[in-house]
Specification:
This protein is mainly α. It has helices spanning 7-17, 24-31, 35-42, 45-68, 75-86, 91-96, 100-109, 113-133, 136-139, 142-159, 163-179.
Length: 180
């Protein structure tokens, strides 16, 4: 089963060499398995990329949704944590990779339906949290606020130099928006 392969070495290998230049042999070496084992599980490099992308999306969405369900935290902290889990946590790896721009460009150009579906689920969960916990003025526009926060977080990934700056800006923006 494909789930037997750990995701991190696969992601690190593609980040190191880029999507086009990474070979199945490179990935197999990082995993400590044979190239044939990869082909038996995935059939092609494209299928391996699709599987890894799907796992990244699923993991990020699960972490983001779990962040929203933290009753001990404020609404602003839960929303910022969710957005950090969705896009912020990948920022350091993308910025550190000489192929980060290529990877981001490919994902934006050929954005999998899974990304759009997952982001819709995240926006819906954030909107519900805003409706349940937000100030009265936020309740009527909860869906718009949640969508705007997702777009803002995606933009911040490209606008700030590091994760600490991303989180500082995100905390400020989320706090200002839900305080109204």
């Amino acid at each position: 089963m494909a789930a037997d392969f750990p995701l991190d070495p696969i992601v690190v290998t593609f980040a190191r060499y880029g999507l086009r230049k990474t070979s199945m042999e490179d990935v197999a070496a990082a995993l400590g398995v044979s190239r044939q084992a990869l082909y038996l599980r995935h059939g092609s490099k494209g299928a391996l990329i699709d599987w890894a992308t799907g796992r990244l999306i699923d993991n990020a969405l699960a972490a983001a949704l779990a962040s929203i369900e933290q009753p001990a935290k404020t609404l602003a902290d839960r929303l910022a944590d969710a957005l950090d889990a969705w896009v912020g946590r990948h920022m350091a790896a993308l910025h550190a990779s000489p192929h980060g721009v290529e990877i981001v460009a490919m994902l934006q150009r050929d954005q999998p339906d899974a990304v759009r579906t997952a982001e819709r689920r995240l926006v819906a969960a954030m909107a519900e949290a805003i409706r349940l916990s937000g100030p009265g003025s936020a309740v009527a526009r909860a869906g718009s606020m949640a969508q705007a926060l997702c777009w803002t977080a995606r933009g911040l990934v490209h606008a700030v130099p590091d994760h600490a700056g991303f989180r500082r800006q995100l905390d400020h923006i989320v706090g200002a928006l839900v305080a109204r």
